[in-house]
Amino acid sequence: MELHAFFLMLAVILLSARFLAEFGSRFGVPAVIGELAAGLIFGPSLLGWLEPGETLKILAEIGIILLLFEVGMDTDIYRLAKAGSKPVVVAGVGFVLPFLAGYAVSAYVFDLPMLASLFVGGTLTATSIGITVRVLSDLGRRSSDEAQVVIGAAVLDDILGVIALAFLYQFAVLGQVTVASIGQVSLFILIFMLLAPVAAKAVAWVIDHFDRKSESPGLLVTMVVSLIMIFSYVAHAVGAPAIMGGFAAGVALGQGFKLRLGGGSSPLSALFNRVFSASPELTHRLEGQFRPLVHLFSPIFFVMVGVSLDLKVVDFSSPFVWWMAFAMTVVAILGKWLAGFFIRESRLRQSAIGLCMIPRGEVGLIFAQLGYQQGLLALETYAALLIVIALTTALPPFALKWYYGKWGDRPELAG
Amino acid sequence: MELHAFFLMLAVILLSARFLAEFGSRFGVPAVIGELAAGLIFGPSLLGWLEPGETLKILAEIGIILLLFEVGMDTDIYRLAKAGSKPVVVAGVGFVLPFLAGYAVSAYVFDLPMLASLFVGGTLTATSIGITVRVLSDLGRRSSDEAQVVIGAAVLDDILGVIALAFLYQFAVLGQVTVASIGQVSLFILIFMLLAPVAAKAVAWVIDHFDRKSESPGLLVTMVVSLIMIFSYVAHAVGAPAIMGGFAAGVALGQGFKLRLGGGSSPLSALFNRVFSASPELTHRLEGQFRPLVHLFSPIFFVMVGVSLDLKVVDFSSPFVWWMAFAMTVVAILGKWLAGFFIRESRLRQSAIGLCMIPRGEVGLIFAQLGYQQGLLALETYAALLIVIALTTALPPFALKWYYGKWGDRPELAG
Fold it and tell me: ipTM more than 0.95?
């Protein structure tokens, strides 16, 4: 791509996303929907001005990683741990239900081959944490109790989704799966998630130490972006999605991550926190310097999601497309929504959690595109899955907006 | 390039640039030299870890454009105008002297063909405003009187350099030059530079108006980056270097750009400024939100300049390379340094201005690479030019550092 053509595309992305987000917000539509619409309008679906070139893909990925970093910084890991088994239950049920139902309906109702059915099931599993978090932010609910459960569950969901993808991909390529390789990937992810916060905390100490001494400005933002990039690289290298690196770095540099041995008052905890915790002042400055970066980059991701959905690919005359899309949309919505009811919460909060888990997006798209590329999914099945992803990505913000508008003041949903 | 490989490269660029800049500053070396060294060490010259891929090139270009935007914001256009003919004289002499001397020495001393000699002369013409500005910033001299002259002259220089490039490129490709096409390009640049600030000021008014009303945050940074991208696109489209767009946008959004009819007290000026000027509060917030972006992106450019200088290309055994490099380095340094003495200033300031004009960098590299690609420059000539560019890029920061250290306190050089 020519340099100046890229400049123009970037301007079109930023301006159209902002304009449609502002326009939509006048009618109560969450900003993320405006950004997706910008991608659909200016992407191949309609005008064809935007093409998903290498650089835009990288910037979009950096956008979602930076957003996850901000989410990680805001995530109180002890509150997440206090939520206990709930995210695990929501993630587990929300993974198994759509996967099995998607597989069963594809294989027995629509007579798809086994491998194709497995890919359809896989496509329906992973929650798009980015879209969910953005919608919750737009509604001012990002620090609510249900958001803690949803974010935890979506993170687990992503890991489950990627493991399933690795599993199915090997199955498709090799014709067989070795338990050892899957176990190895899972083990790596586990170790990474445990060690990453400690490593990041040590780096935070270095930043904290040198930022006070450094003569040239900008050390903070440069070091943190480098840290996020390295974490994302390591996450990818051990088989986890790159966004997990941004999330882990954010958790580690946030104020929520502190050792609280003996209720936080033991001498060991005090020593550890004095040595390893980022100072509140550092965290505060970091948030101030990062907000412009996140605001600049994260819309690129959501616009590019819209760009990657080429509605022209869909053959709208085929009844199979519509029936398949209808059935899978029902499976995708029910599978996630019902998962909310497997934990002990008020009915209203169970329902809210289930709704929050519905958006699919990136991992689902990766699943569907991989299946199509590998020749496992027919064009019509692929088209139906694109519709499902579009609907499950586009509708939940409206549903959540409506839901919180109607029930948000009730004591069961209040902070 | 794989996504995760890019993450690692970006981290290597940011960390090595920062580390070498910090390390160098302990020994009084300007930060920009550390960043260039990072590019030489991790680029193809030594370790070969960094490759100039499409995305890195784009990010580097965005880095230099954002830096020029910041420079533009800090540039008081009336102070520049008050400097009057000085930047024009410095730019003109600093263009003509190295060009003619470079041509003459190449053609008559080294017996190069006419076209090759013209390309050698052209390579020596354009000052690297980015490196100069960075060094002046590092020395705390960016708002000094001589910086105003140097920035103005370097901007004019870049325009002259690009026009010369267009001229020579057409000469090389077609075997002839049409005066009409060159005139057209120059006219476009002139109109662009006159109209851009007015257009940007109108956009600033829109931003100012909507940023107060907008419900979602981040409007300011998104709109301004979009504006800079569009300006850069237009600049390129009319044949000017893209960085001119960033500079023009910065001038327009800064506080230095105000109508001052009748000494600034006429009713017409007051009305114009009330309607078109960005509020001081907007300018202030803009500077605060932009600094992290500039600090993050601008080092990428300087590292990539280092990456683009592959020292392995140089055949160090050829005496021609050394004589050519020596002669051209003398021409390049004297041609710019002497230009400072053509304006009426104190001797110390004349000399400082001349020294500031010496760094070459990007446009010189474009010249040399184009001549090499077109088969006009032999490998040995190309290698010699790379040495000249490396020396004239790397030495002036030391010279300036030394110069200001020795004479900076004298009244002729003080603010």
Answer: no
Give me the residue from B7, B293, B294 closest to A229, CB to CB.
B7
> B248-295: per-residue pLDDT in tens?
788 777 765 554 444 455 666 565 555 555 566 777 777 777 888 888
Across the interface, do A210 and B22 touch by the CB < 8 Å criterion? yes
Query: How far is it, in rounded angstroms, from Cα A129 to Cα A64?
Result: 10
Using CA coordinates, name the residue in chain B closest to A58. Answer: B3
Cβ-based contacts under 8 A for chains A and B:
148
Query: Does A241 have pLDDT greater than 90?
Result: no
Q: Which residues of A touch B55 (CB under 8 A)?
A: 54-55, 58
CA–CA separation, A155 vs A187, rounded Å?
A: 16
| Helix-strand-coil split of chain B, %, nearest 5 | 80, 0, 20
d(Cα A219, Cα A194) in Å, to the nearest integer?
Answer: 27
- HEC per residue, B237-288: HCCCCCHHHHHHHHHHHCCCCCCCHHHHCCHHHHHHHHHHCCCHHHHHHHHH
Domains and CATH numbers, chain B: 3-407 (1.20.1530.20)
Chain A contact present for B266, CB below 8 A = no
Cα gap B144→B76, rounded to integer Å: 11
Contact A225 B3 (CB under 8 A): no
Dump pLDDT digits (tens) for B188-208: 667 766 777 777 777 777 777
**How far apart (Å, rounded) are the C-alpha atoms in residues A390 and A33?**
11
CA atoms of B322 and B315, how far apart (whole Å): 10
Cα(A52)–Cα(A55) distance, integer angstroms:
8
Of A7, A54, A217, the CB nearest to B54: A54
- Chain A nearest-CA distance from B33, in A, is 13
DSSP B131-144: HHHHHHHHTT-TTS
| Residues A55 and B54: beta-carbon distance below 8 Å | yes
Q: Tell me the shortest Cα–Cα distance from B74 to chain A, in angstroms.
A: 17
Identify the closest residue of chain A to B291 by CA–CA distance.
A218
d(C-alpha A241, C-alpha A235), whole Å: 6
Q: Does B85 touch chain A (CB under 8 A)?
A: no
Q: What is the pLDDT of residues A369-391, one digit of tens each?
A: 777 767 788 878 888 887 888 78
Mutate to test the interface with A, among B7, B10, B301 (most CBs of A within 10 A): B7
- Give the gap in angstroms from C-alpha B148 to the nearest C-alpha of chain A: 22
Contact B371, B377 (CB under 8 A): yes
Rounded CA separation A317/B188 (Å): 51
Q: pLDDT tens, A142-155?
A: 778 888 888 888 87
Residue closest to A95 by CA, chosen among A162, A48, A33, A144: A162
Least confident of B91-105, B111-125, B180-194, B305-319: B180-194
Cβ atoms of B125 and B160 within 8 Å: the answer is yes
Nearest beta carbon to residue B222 from set A214, A230, A295:
A295
Q: Which residues of B touch A232 (CB under 8 A)?
A: 4, 7
Place of tokens 């400690």: A198
B206 burial level (CB within 10 Å; 0-12, 13-18, 19+): exposed
Tokens of B317: 């055994």
Please report where in the chains the tokens 């690129």 appear, as a residue.
A300
